[in-house]
Amino acid sequence: MAISMALSSISSSVSSSTSVGNPRRRALHLKTQRPRTVFLGSKVECGIRGVQHTDLSRNATFHSAKATLSELLRENTTSTSDLLLMHDEGLELYEDMILARSFEDMCAQMYYRGKMFGFVHLYNGQEAVSTGFIKSLRKDDFVCSTYRDHVHALSKGVPARQVMSELFGKATGCCRGQGGSMHMFSKEHQVLGGFAFIGEGIPVATGAAFATKYRREVLKDDKADAVTVAFFGDGTCNNGQFFECLNMAALWKLPIIFVVENNLWAIGMSHYRATSIPEIWTKGPAFGMPGVHVDGMDVLKVREVANEAIARARRGDGPTLVECETYRFRGHSLADPDELRKPDEKAHYAARDPIMSLKTYLIENNLASEGDLKAIEKKIDEIVEDSVEFAEASPLPERSQLLENVFADPKGFGIGPDGRYRCEEPGFTAGTAQV
Amino acid sequence: MLPESSLVLGLSFEVKTETGSTATAQQGHELLLFEALREGLEEEMERDPTVCVIGEDVGHYGGSYKVTKGMAEKFGDLRLLDTPIAENSFTGMAIGAAMTGLRPIVEGMNMGFLLLAFNQIANNCGMLHYTSGGQFTIPIVIRGPGGVGKQLGAEHSQRLESYFQSVPGLQMVACSTPYNAKGLMKAAIRSENPVILFEHVLLYNLKERIPDEEYVLCLEEAELVRPGQDITILTYSRMRHHVLQAVKTLVSKGYDPEVIDIRSLKPFDLFAIGNSVKKTHKVLIVEECMRTGGIGASLRAAIMENFFDELDAPIGCLSSQDVPTPYAGPLEDLTVVQPPQIVFAVEQLCKH
Q1: A-B contacts (CB, under 8 Å)
Q2: Could you point out which of A102, B29, B203, B276 has its C-alpha 20 to 30 Å from the C-alpha of B315?
């Protein structure tokens, strides 16, 4: 029964969220048909009704996490300007999503041409989540991702050239070719990875948030308010690290946002076959933080929620759990035949393509012209082409690079039989790492 | 039930290190090993405000072996962070904090609990500096009491050095006296590399006089405990003390063993070890970890590779039995190497 309620509430949110157009109509749909969500930091109280298996309004922990909806979501008084979407912002979002889509499509091409190898996981279809969140972050905020990390790195500002080179395994890659598709890191842009095992990045993200709190309270740095956003999938939400970190983040009120990219499938495992309570957002209040469900195919909605959650974290009110309903248009990885997902499910979400939705919205609301958008698409094409050329022309890592970054302090390789540190031997970094 | 230091009978005799501590009877101050660890920790926390301790019961409780006693009152709850029981996640959290500028020390209440953090230690701690192309450093220290105690049962008597030694990117050191405990603690905290510091449950009450002046030991160096001519005995942690007991018997029988506490379990100090092998031409390794895939196994391979021509005898290796440590006293004693076995092994090897 609980599952059918969840499905019906999801399908009702589906029908409301296909109308990206008229803000007033959108707000009305939100009020009547979406599952109500708990959202701290906003002004209107809203209870959770219609979710009978978990009557959170009577839950003691829920009372401490009582939510209010922001004025943006409340009523008919919304207008285009209230959505804070100016011409430039709209184009920025569009450009970021087009970059993501074009880049990932190019990755697929390059993979099948034998330029990149191993496991490559593409983000097509999920662009609204990355763009919606990361474009609202500052440069010094942290992003932590999973193996589906190319687009998170791009949105955060890592140049396309560096990401493509990394995928080609060249020395000019952001990780010098040592990381690969699943391990995108950038110190300059505060991208903390890129992890192959699911759930592994969530504690790392929690640590970055802890460091912000530490700076503020122990090192007495008033300006320390960097926020960390951790991205992960629906499959990860059944993993212990997820729950352990929800607990610690809420316990210590860490400035972190846990973003669930629920694309309903963990390779071939349907979310509903793996999860006893599929509504992941309901698990937030169980740990003492707001849990929000948002339509992850609509970049404007994601952005709205992101702005609230980021502001909440930045002012020190603690973590938020955001579940984004999204979908990947391709298989789990380029090696996945993708035979289990039904065609009508795929068609349903293809009709909700976040890029098409934003395009329609921008044009219908006179925020951009076709010409503006075409110009962006052309610009991105050139950027992606350039990144491929750059990657192709870049050198492969030299043999001498083999041992260079094993230790931050290469004295860790130890003292050799002749009394010198092994790292002082000429040509050591090209040799084999014997103890 | 978790053991407290008061319940576990430590070896509470004076430590006589020939070359370890340079404190004489007049200078320096006497303290127990856990106090030495605390001293090192406090000095480093005063010196650098980004140093913090993360673990279960490290704050208000003062640590299950009292290593951090009194420190939360002095440094505050954020610098001595009492965590929920979630080793994998708080170790990962420490790694994330290290990547973003702090210098955390993760305490495993018992080293064995860090098996739960194996994912984070192997995948992230050792690897992230490399997979990020050198962009992020992880100056983390992971420490805790391990080894076979007094009838603590199999799960509280584990030796993790053999499990972690294959993880690239990690350094491992083992302390055995108050002098080297403090020195290695300080060195590990100052190191930019992730370091695992192995302490031993039965050694926390060892007493020694250590210098008043500040000192930091070298993480990669071994310690010459007793110079000799007949045979090189390589050991670490608690087995050092079993070896020294055996040495008393051996000396009375006319042998002159050279004892080296290798201290650095990864990487090995091949210079100190090599010099000794070139002098004595015979090696006996005495260790507490299990025979299979242990530190001794790696050390034998390294010595054979580098100093084969210097050897007059096969390299002897005394390790613990490949057995989950039994609870019963006599059986537990049999799993670990005892001084009479060391004496016998030396006698056998010296016949070559």
Answers
A1: 201
A2: B203
Cβ atoms of A70 and A39 closer than 8 Å: yes
User: Are the beta carbons of B67 and B40 closer than 8 angstroms?
Assistant: no
Confidence of residue B20 (pLDDT cuts 50, 70, 90): low
Residues of B belonging to the active site: 87, 156
pLDDT, one tens digit per residue, over B273-327 is 999 999 999 999 999 999 999 999 999 999 999 999 999 999 999 999 999 999 9
Binary contact (B136, A187; C-beta < 8 A): yes
CA–CA min distance B144, chain A (Å): 20
Min mean pLDDT across A62-71, A77-86, B26-35, B195-204 is at: A62-71
Sheet strands (E) in B188-294: 195-200, 207-210, 223-226, 231-235, 257-261, 264-266, 283-290
In this predicted structure, which of A32-46, B120-134, B145-159, B306-320 has the lowest mean pLDDT?
Answer: A32-46
The residues, any chain, with a CB within 8 Å of residue A204's CB and separated by 6 or more, are A144, A192, A193, A195, B92, B93, B95, B96, B99, B124
Cβ contact B270–A213 (<8 Å): no
Task: Please name the residues in contact with A356: beta carbons below 8 A apart, sequence gap of 6 or more.
Answer: none
Cβ <8 Å between B88 and A241: yes
Nearest CB among A194, A251, A411 relative to B220 is that of A411
pLDDT for the residue B25: 56
* Chain B interface test: which of A190, A405, A413, A429 (most B C-beta within 10 Å): A405
What is the per-residue pLDDT for A432? 65
Could A412 and B271 be called an inter-chain contact, meaning their C-beta atoms sit closer than 8 Å? no
Q: Residue A257: helix, strand or coil by DSSP?
A: strand
Closest approach of A136 to chain B, Cα-based (Å): 21
In chain A, what residues touch B135 (CB-CB under 8 Å)?
175, 185-187
Contact B264 A414 (CB under 8 A): yes
- What's the pLDDT band for B8 if we cut at 50, 70, 90? very low
Nearest to A179 by CA among A228, A258, A120: A120
pLDDT in the model for residue B17? 45
Whole-number Å distance between alpha carbons of B140 and B52: 10
- The predicted pLDDT at position A135 comes to 97
Token pair, residue B158, equals 């584990």
pTM above 0.90, yes or no: no
